[in-house]
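Subject: Two-component membrane permease complex subunit structure
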Amino acid sequence: MRKRITFNSDAFVRSVILLGFALLFGYLMITGQITLYINPRFVSMAELAVYLLIPLLILQTVKIFDAHKPAESSGCCHSHSSRWIYLPFIATLLLAFLVPTNSLDAQLVANKGLNSKASSKAGPELSNIARPLAQELSQSKTIQVNDKNFAEVMSELQLFPADYIGKEITLTGFVFRSSGLMPNQLDLVRYVISCCAADARPFGVLCELKDADKYEDGKWLQIQGIVQMGKYEDQTVSMVKVVTAKEIKSPGDPYVFPLAQ
């Protein structure tokens, strides 16, 4: 008896979904946008996922056209309701390709909570906190804050400000104004990602400069100043007395990541 070739719609849908995810991951890695979603140390895992998707895609593609004897399918009863299981995957792909990739901005800082003005009073619990950059920063005349050390420097300034009073500091971030700030004050903020964009936390430092009111929320600044102690809502907090400020374009990769432990 001759075999009959039939179209397997389930295998076709699975192939399209697998191809979609492979193209999505590949596009994000080629363009560098993958770090808008996950920590760079997990990029290799995303690459591995693409390599695993390829054999699955080939397997499903082969099954699109089934060759079997007519008798084999005579008693088959397929439930079309099972095809609803593909809807979440299809919806995810449509959103990923149709919705533009946007980074977190100043509008979400208030919802997530900014750490820059937490009380700087030391306590016994601080003795157990890891300080990987403490020695290096204490020996440097100027604290150069960059993408690699941003989170650790902000932690040092918040928890151990007395160690850095009078030191020069340079850093980059976007403007955000918390409630209760004076007209000559603003926060300079970056989002720190530990694992993925869902756990992004705004870290920053209180800054004081004469023309602070001319910089709108979300504008990116590069500043140079002196670490001092200041007041915010009757709390003593670390702050930067800004000497120079320059407005810059938003960096291609706006997020920063903690040092790998």
